[in-house]
Amino acid sequence: MAQFFTPKSNKLKKLSKKIILDVQRLDHKGQGVADHEGKVVFVPGLLPGERGEVQLTEQKKRFAQARLLKRLGESPLRIAPECEHFGRCGGCQVQHLSQQEQRAYKQQALLDMLSRLGGCEPQEVAEPIKGAGWHYRRRARLALKVDKGELQMGFRREGSSEIEPVRRCPILVQPFADLLPQIHSLLNGLKGKRQLGHLELTRTASGDLFCLRVLKPLKQQDCAALEAFALEHELTVLLDEGAQVRRIDGKPLAPFAIELGEMSEPLAYLPGDFIQVNDQVNQGMVAQALDWLAPDEEDSVLELFAGIGNFSFPLARRCRSVLAVEGVDTMVARGNERARELRVDNLTFCQADLNDGEGDPRWLKPVDLLLLDPARAGAGGALTHLSQWSPKRVLYVSCNPASLARDAKLLTEQGYRLKRVGLVDMFPHTQHLESMALFEKSGL
Residue 120's pLDDT band (boundaries 50, 70, 90)? Predict the structure, then answer.
């Protein structure tokens, strides 16, 4: 009988003894970084200059993870968090820092990763793109679960699948931020509350959406309660039944509008599509993309991981052609339909798995400009085709500094230099670090 190797767990079977650590800096996730017996130790909740009593909860060869038992002293950088759920809710990690300090540590973490993992340094560091620090999030998903007859509604706790009951969230746009108690009361009173999966709230230019995942059809009494609530609070209630999403009022489901300001006509959005959650910062990001890429009317643009056209439609206004490649076929269909509606004849969306390493004749052609907006895994698979595109400029929009750094190394090894990088403060008070990097072909 064949025997299979089972690696031993690197986690400690028991917590370590209590130890005292001094934090020197923050990592890109906002965790305190300390040294202990030759290892780097990550301690959530401590700031540079602070000392804490901790226990090691996980150890590996070169680093360890710790939990904070008691903070000993206080950094002058520390501020009082705005939200009562901070420290338990997994949504925010750095509310104990001012926004200015949040941006400073994130920018430094970004530059450190580019240097350490990517082996490159930018010629220029741009000012961060920033917006309002509170009430900025236009889309959020709340977990729902019935426990002992009571509906729990909130966000997942830090490092856990358990729900932190949330009745007010200061990063949600209004009216969502203050409407949570009424929403909880409504849902907890439904006869079919055990059939609820989750709730997604979204602000669009067409109105506020209340999309409820249901595992089984709701009774008419529950539907009537939802419709009355929607009318009172000017919401559009949608039921996500798995196979389809429908309006509870029986009207045909048509796309909702996502504004891009003066840069483009609104995008066409349906639940399940990806959109950036911070409208103000997103518009600044699109404007900066146009400025950095600097397309002219003769340029051809290839955009990868295009979504429903956040960058595609503004780019199409300024260049000869845009080919927008996206993996999700429903978003591709929506992009093409919107292009036809607006008579944007120089924009085409096509579907492809950009990380499978396979090429496609539709987009394996020389282009003038390349824009990448990948998911957290990065664009390593797509960049294997860089020599076939040979663009003069590459704009990389990143939601993960580690994958950006790895992909930056691929770009520089193929003759591109990192001209400019900048932080995009899309998610204030969280560990998420978004950025933009501009690469130019050497010799231009």
Answer: very high
Question: Are the CB atoms for 98 and 77 separated by under 8 Å?
Answer: yes
pLDDT of residue 144: 97
pTM: 0.92
Please name the residues in contact with 52: beta carbons below 8 A apart, sequence gap of 6 or more.
Answer: 20, 21, 23, 32, 43, 45, 46, 68, 69, 70, 71, 72
Distances (CA, A) of 39 to 33, 56, 208: 10, 11, 49
Residues identified as active-site: 399
- The CATH fold assigned to 19-72 is OB fold (Dihydrolipoamide Acetyltransferase, E2P) (2.40.50)
Dihedral sign computed on CA atoms, order 331, 334, 340, 344: negative
| Residues 9-23, mean pLDDT to the nearest whole number | 71
CA distance linking residue 395 with residue 299, whole number of Å: 14
Q: Which residues contact 266 (CB under 8 A, 6 or more apart)?
A: 205, 257, 258, 259, 260
How many degrees, rounded to 5, is the angle at CA 145 between CA 140 and CA 149? 140
Tens digit of each residue's pLDDT (9 = 90 or more) over 173-220: 999 999 999 999 999 999 999 999 999 999 999 999 999 999 999 999
Place of tokens 């968090």: 81
What value does the mean pLDDT take over residues 64-87?
94
Domains 19-72 and 103-132+278-441 share a fold: no
Under 8 Å between Cβ of 55 and 15? yes
Q: What is the DSSP string of 220-265?
A: HHHHHHHHHHHHHHTEEEEEE-SS-EEETT-----PEEE--GGGSS
Please report which residue ranges of 63-162 form alpha helices under DSSP H: 99-116
Q: Answer for the pair 40, 33: CB distance below 8 angstroms, yes or no.
A: yes
Where along the chain do its domains lie?
Answer: 19-72, 103-132+278-441, 139-256
Q: What's the CATH number of domain 139-256, 2.40.50.1070, 2.30.140.10, 2.60.120.460, 3.60.20.30?
A: 2.40.50.1070
**DSSP-based helix, strand, coil % in the chain, nearest 5:** 25, 30, 45
> In 3D, which of 25, 26, 71, 35 has the Cα closest to residue 51?
71
Superfamily of domain 103-132+278-441: Vaccinia Virus protein VP39 (3.40.50.150)
